[in-house]
Each structure stands twice: as structure tokens, then as C-alpha cells.
Write a structure and sequence with these properties.
The structure is a homodimer. The first copy, chain A, is an alpha+beta fold. Chain A has one domain (2-107): Alpha-Beta Plaits. Chain A is 38% helix and 33% strand. A 4-stranded antiparallel sheet of chain A has the order 2-3-1-4. In chain A, strand 2 (35-43) and strand 3 form a beta hairpin. In chain A, helix 1 packs antiparallel against helix 3 (69-79). Chain A is globular, with a radius of gyration of 16 Å. Chains A and B meet through helix 1, strand 2, strand 4 and helix 4 of A and helix 1, strand 2, strand 4 and helix 4 of B.
Chain lengths: 109, 109
């Protein structure tokens, strides 16, 4: 799985506009090949910091999107940020859940 | 790197209390071995959905925390959620930035 995270500080007066622009990018992704999920957040302490997350099954699925208008629009939105945005691509090779935490805690007893 | 994500729907009347509880967990992490980052968000559309993210250099660093009071407190907070919370541990083996996106787009020309 490849996870894309975008942390972006926006100008307060443009915050809702930027959130709307990102939200409008999300809906078409639902039908994209290899799409897993997409989420949009505001920082709990600073509402002007936006956090956007996409998850894709494979690198190929993500690259298809990177070459599409989806990423042209995403990069345009990033250019409107108040500070240099932080875009990161994380290659995730293993995913575990609560059972891992529970097992690690039991092992310690 | 190991990334921990917690997505949690909280009762509206307890939202600020839960955010405060999570925030109070974050500060001591700054001094923990292998700590990279910790962030707390609200969903852009539903403020009752909280998203909490921790990043650790290694599995060993994370397991040390899992066996500590930090995770005892985190698990207690999760028990107060309005719906079953979604805890995920992602093993990240490669991290890239904007340069990857730019290269992938150039390759397509």
C-alpha cells in the first residue's frame, strides 16, 4: 500500500475555500483503480493546518493518479498554501491492528 | 518507521474532554526514545471524528511505549469512544517527497 499525506498551513481567510477544493478532489477518487481511502482533517489545535491523506493499493495505482488531472489540481492547491506544504509518500509493507498492541502488552507480563 | 493511527468517533458532549485527554498524552512523548512525531486532528466534515497519529523510528521503540502507561492511557481513552475505534499500525519501509511526484509526472511527457 502507498499512503500519501499532505500537511498544509493555509491563510485563515482562504481556509474554507481550500477545504472545499480538496473535498471536491476526493469524490472522483472513489471510482479510481486501486483506491483504498481518502480523508481530510483539520489540526485539533490550529484549524489553519489541513491534513489530507490518500491510500492506494500499489505504486502503479498511485502513479496513474500522479499523471492525471487529480494531481495537477492537488499541486495547484498546494501552491496556494501560506507556508511550504509537506507532501509525503509512505510505502506501507505491513498493517496490524489492536491485536498487535494487546499481544505486545501480554508478552510483558 | 512504524506509524500508529487512531480514528475515533466521540460523543459530541465529550469531544473537547477526549481531545484534551489525547493532547495530554502527547507532550511526554517528545522525550521518548525513537519518537518522531505525534499529531491530533479533527475530521474536516465531522468534528466528532478524531484522528491521532504517532510515528516511531522502530518497532522496538513502539513496543517500549505499548508496554508503558502511555498505551494504558491511550487504550482507556479508546474505551470511551462512541463507536468502535480504528487503531492501525503501519510499517513504513520507504518515504519519498514531492520530488517523486514531480519525477513521475515528467516521465509521462
Amino acid at each position: 500500500m502507498v499512503q500519501v499525506t499532505l500537511a498544509m498551513v493555509v491563510y485563515p481567510r482562504r481556509r474554507e475555500e481550500m477545504i472545499h477544493a480538496l473535498r471536491s478532489l476526493m469524490l472522483p477518487l472513489l471510482a479510481a483503480p486501486g483506491f483504498i481511502s481518502c480523508r481530510l482533517f483539520r489540526d485539533a489545535d490550529n484549524p489553519n493546518t489541513i491534513f489530507y491523506v490518500e491510500e492506494w493499493h500499489s505504486q502503479g495505482d498511485l502513479e496513474l493518479q500522479i499523471r492525471s488531472t487529480h494531481y495537477s489540481r492537488l499541486l495547484s492547491i498546494m501552491e496556494e498554501a501560506a507556508e511550504p506544504p509537506e507532501l509525503r509518500l509512505n510505502w506501507v509493507t505491513e498493517v496490524r491492528g489492536l491485536e498487535y498492541v494487546e499481544a505486545a502488552r501480554v508478552c510483558d507480563r
